[in-house]
Write a structure and sequence with these properties.
By secondary structure, the chain is an alpha+beta fold. Helices cover 27% and strands 27% of the residues. Strand 15 (482-486) and strand 16 form a beta hairpin. Helix 1 crosses helix 3 (33-41) and helix 2 (22-29) crosses helix 3.
């Protein structure tokens, strides 16, 4: 018969749970205290006949004593522990860490998948497998789940929060979540399971991954230097995505705790300060087994649940492979409303206030989109490099599958970039693009500064730039002509366009591999990994100035990243530039001699200054919501060309057009930019310039506007 935990530690915990001492057990069994002590310390084990007596004393069956795969049901039952209010009268009206992120399933996907990558077990060489499951409960299924989480014990706390909801934001969110459940008779669960990960190892209270996630804020205990997270904020997205502030956890451990590895369960609730039956409560609460060692056995700790319990809590894991399941109770996706356009509203017939932030089909699509956009590189392998990640999304209603499980395929979501990365892994890149389907590679330098504010350079890290042609409409996730930058865990950190591209450039996609993503042989890879990790904000969506970068290196350290960006853009422009054609081809001169071309006499140039005219305009919306324009100007013949000022405006139905400020205005050919004014090269007939608007000057969101560009003489007033 398979057994779980060692008998001694298991028996010691059962005595604590039952409130018995070793002496009391010895008296009930009519044995000496020394005999019980020998069992506890592992010096001996009881005879099979004594096992039945022990089971009776603990109020359980003999099978539980033999297998020891779960705790007995005797003693202290699973319950909710709410942290008491602070004695000094202080009040926390919500978890500040949760305000670092929006209630957005795409942000949740980015943070949770990054955490799973960071906790991947690397010894076996296999990827970490992550599954997202949306499950809408109604009717009896909803009633059964509420009973399992002891909803009746929680309801007075939710009622207290709802009564004060008008006074603060968290209360309004919670009140809306409770009302939606009761008024529409539904509850959306979103479970995130990972496999081949470390699991929440460690003690309930002491330093370790369990305490860092369940007990603490702003603590990050990652498994390696190439980890994505460093602020300890990512876990807050779990609670931010729950309209009820409730997350349940079931972890299978890679390192045993208390002799066990499977079904370590606990729940955490995040509510603002409240008063229930005259008693103040600080905010958070935990769902677990009361700890006999805590004062009055009040504090709830994790417990080793049986299979029936985890099934009732919707926390059943499909295998015993190490990893963790997070169940977000009352999941909602407020940010999905921002993706709606006015046209969507008009065609769908949705009125204000009717938008559903709990549509599991829409959430399914947004999860797939985000995972393919941010983790395509981690899911890509080639040559001797294996994928780091496998991820899928599915949706259910009351146990019935309504959206089939979709395995996210990077070659579908990001075809051009996936092709580029595989070519790099397989060693099939070229120096320059000459044919369709090729991938060009170029090393770009990142000069690493000395730490502690010292002047000088530690060394030069050679990042790898990959460029390939775009895949037409299939590469429309974030616009063409972009560079995706990533480091060791191969999550896309930065997405940026390339300015001042040569005229007529074919659409392309580019990838920058920096730090440990550049390969084990890349010089100063670990140092670059550490430097770039420190240059990421909590959102991990760019590299730039951060407080950590300033403290560990210097206030000017970010300039090394700016220099890297400039090197990357220069290399891209060189790789995608079309080769110049020769002025004469074979036989060309002979053909020209055989032709007679009749030319018209040159028109006389008009006297006085001439005014350039806007000829063509190409405009797109950038990642940050700015307008990006490329404009060509035709210039009449004349002795003097009037300087012109480009003016960007928003098209409105009535009244004056709001003027937008330029964040960047760059001359491409035939002109130069001086204090926002275009000055044209004498004798040119055409000129070209590019620009991007300053988002802070936009009165409304860019996707809801139309752009008007004018050229005005003089100062543009």
């Amino acid at each position: 018969m398979d057994t779980g935990e060692e008998f001694g530690p298991w028996l010691a915990r059962q005595l604590k749970l039952a409130g018995k001492t070793q002496a009391e057990l010895a008296d009930e069994l009519q044995l000496t205290r020394a005999a019980v002590s020998a069992w506890i310390t592992g010096r001996s084990t009881p005879r099979p006949t004594v096992m039945a007596d022990i089971a009776k004393a603990l109020g359980t069956d003999v099978g539980t004593v033999h297998t020891r795969t779960t705790d007995t049901q005797a003693g202290l039952p699973v319950t909710w522990y709410h942290r008491p209010g602070y004695p000094d009268g202080g009040r926390d009206m919500g978890n500040a860490a949760a305000f670092a992120f929006d209630a957005d399933v795409q942000v949740l996907a980015r943070e949770t998948c990054q955490n799973s990558l960071d906790e991947r077990l690397t010894e076996n060489g296999r990827p970490v497998r992550v599954r997202y499951t949306l499950h809408e409960l109604t009717g009896e299924a909803l009633d059964s789940f509420r009973e399992a989480i002891l909803w009746n014990d929680l309801f007075p706390h939710y009622s207290a929060v709802s009564e004060a909801a008008a006074n603060q934001k968290v209360g309004r969110v919670v009140d809306a979540g409770v009302r939606d459940m009761y008024e529409k008779g539904r509850l959306v669960l979103l479970r995130v399971d990972d496999y081949n990960a470390s699991g929440l190892i460690g003690d309930d209270y002491a330093d370790g991954k369990f305490a860092a996630v369940v007990r603490r804020q702003l603590e990050s205990l990652k498994s390696g230097p190439g980890a994505g997270g460093s602020y300890g904020l990512g876990k807050a997205t779990l609670w931010a995505t729950s309209a009820l502030g409730l997350v349940l956890i079931n972890s299978t451990l890679s390192v045993p705790h208390e002799g066990r590895t499977e079904r370590r369960v606990i729940g955490r609730l995040e509510l603002p300060w409240r008063e229930v039956d005259g008693e103040p409560y600080a905010g958070p609460a935990w769902f677990g087994r009361p700890d006999p060692d805590s004062p009055g056995a009040m504090v709830a700790r994790s417990w080793w649940a049986d299979e029936e319990t985890v099934e009732r809590l919707h926390l059943t894991r499909e295998t015993n492979e190490p990893g963790t399941s997070f169940l977000i109770v009352g999941a909602h996706d407020v940010a999905s409303l921002e993706s709606r356009s006015d046209a969507d509203d008009e065609t769908s017939g949705v009125e204000d206030g009717d938008e559903d932030t709990r549509d599991i089909r829409k959430m399914h699509g947004r999860l797939v989109e985000a995972l393919g956009r941010d983790f395509w590189a981690a899911m890509t392998g080639g040559g001797s490099r294996l994928p780091l990640l496998e991820v899928s999304v599915r949706a259910f209603q009351n146990g019935k599958e309504v959206v089939p499980e979709k395995q996210v395929d990077p070659s579908v979501e990001q075809p051009a970039r996936t092709r580029a990365l595989r070519a790099h892994y397989e060693g099939t890149t070229v120096d320059r693009l000459t044919e369709a389907g090729q991938v060009a590679a170029r090393n770009v330098p990142l000069k690493l500064p000395l730490s502690g504010g010292a002047h000088g350079t530690l060394g030069t890290h050679q990042a790898v730039l990959l460029v390939t042609e775009a895949e037409g409409d299939r590469d429309g996730d974030g616009g063409k002509n972009q560079v995706h930058s990533l480091r060791g865990n191969r999550m896309t950190v930065k997405r940026a366009g390339v300015q001042r591209l040569p005229l007529g450039t074919n659409p392309f996609q580019a990838v920058l591999l920096a730090g440990e993503a550049a390969g084990e042989t890349a010089p100063f890879a670990k140092e670059a990994e550490e430097f770039l990790r420190a240059a990421e904000p909590p959102e991990h969506d760019r590299w730039g100035q951060t407080e950590e970068l300033t403290l560990r290196w210097s206030p000017s350290a970010y300039r090394r990243i700016s220099a890297l960006t400039a090197e990357v853009n220069n290399a891209v422009r060189e790789l995608v530039a079309r080769p110049k054609r020769s002025s004469s081809r074979a036989g060309g001169e002979a053909v020209r001699r055989a032709l007679t071309v009749r030319t018209r006499p040159k028109a006389k140039a008009p006297a006085g200054p001439v005014v350039p005219v806007l000829d063509t305009l190409d405009a797109t919306v950038g990642d940050d919501g700015e307008w990006r324009i490329t404009a060509e100007v035709s210039i009449p013949r004349g002795d003097e060309i009037v300087p012109m000022v480009p003016v960007a405006q928003l098209d409105v139905r009535s009244g004056g057009r709001p003027k937008l400020e330029w964040a960047e205005l760059v001359a491409v050919e035939g002109c130069e930019v001086e204090d926002g004014t275009l000055r044209f090269t004498p004798g040119v007939r055409r000129a070209k310039f590019q620009g991007s608007t300053d988002v802070s000057s936009h009165p409304v969101r860019t996707t809801l506007t139309r752009l008007v560009l004018e050229l005005r003489a003089g100062k543009g007033e």
